[in-house]
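INTERNAL AUDIT FORM
Audit reference: QA-55
Scope: verify that the stored structure record matches its stored sequence.
Auditor: D.O.
Record contents follow.
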Amino acid sequence: ITPYPLIKTYEHFKGVHKTLVFLHVKTILKPYTPPSKCLEFEELGDGVFKITLNFGFMEKPNVPLALQRNI
């Protein structure tokens, strides 16, 4: 499924960037996420990447801090 903003960007500019990063923030069913499992990184090919940040239901999600710590 293609995200709607990506479709609109393509329609407007008639193209997309060479590198695309999809960020998914997920709340898991445990109270806290161990630091080793906070970030999942997947290369989908052709300059497309998927990053998933996992936060426990008791944690306050801080996306910029989680990215700084893990990337």
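Auditor finding: record pair retrieved intact. DSSP finds two helices and three strands in the chain.
Action required: none
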